[in-house]
Structure formats: structure tokens, C-alpha cells
Request: fold
Amino acid sequence: METSTDLVERLAALEARVGRLEAPRPVTGETVLDRLRTEAPEGSGVAFAGSLALPGGRRVEWQMGHPASGLLDADWSDIAPALAALGHPVRLRLLNAVLAGTRETAALVRTLGDGTTGQLHHHLRELTATGWLRAERRGCYDVPADRVVPLLVAIAAAGGPQTGREGA
Reply:
């Protein structure tokens, strides 16, 4: 049986490992495409990353990559609920408001305009059930750190507001 000291040591080792995995990597002359060609299985993959400061001083840095074969061979119907949750204009406005710092239910109801608190809670339930939002405490919501960059990638991929475009 493990002692509390063993658990503390294992947790510290795990936190250190996660910290190394999530640490920002130095920018070199190598592009993301170069890395995919050399590191992804069969030189084929998809990657996305982001580094941003959110209102309130929160900083999010996150990256993810997938081998293309895993994505192409997967059953996409499993992710339909998460994508459907993003398919409603009110939910997108709510996510945008939460990222901008509006996190309390009382303030979020104003995002609906003429909507009711019942409608707000319906949309908040959809977003929390699919992982786009997390209830930090009763009446207070946040976008989990591991969903901020994927959300912004989805917005950008769907043709969201653009200030510039980098191509291959």
C-alpha cells in the first residue's frame, strides 16, 4: 500500500512531466509543416497551437497534433455533439463573452438580449455537457484551458474574423 509520501512524490513527478510536455517550445526556422513531415507517422498529420493572453491576466498556451490516419479512420459521429454545440449563434456569443471575461450567469443573460434565463441555462448546459464550458462554481463559468485554443482554431477554420492569413 502506498503511503501519503509516495503519493506526494508521484504527484510531484507527474506535475513536472506535464510541465515539460506543456512548456512552450522555442521558435526556430522550422515550420509546423516541416515538423509534421518529419515527426508524424508517414509524414502526414494535423497540428494546431496557440499562445494568448485572455482578459483578467489568464495566459493559455496549448498545442496538439494528430496523425492524419487516426483522424481519417475515426468515427466522426462521436464528436457530433461537440460540433453541434458550436453551431448555434447564441452559444458562440456566450463562449465569446466568457472568453472576454463575462463569467457570471447574471451578466451572461444580457448576452441573450431578449432571451430568458431558462434559455440561457439551456445553452449553458449544452456547452458544459460537451466540454466547451466548465462551471467553476454555481453561476460562474469558464472555458477550460484545453478548450480555448481548439475553440479559436474552430472559429478561424470556419472563416472567423481575420487579420491575416499564413499559407503553405
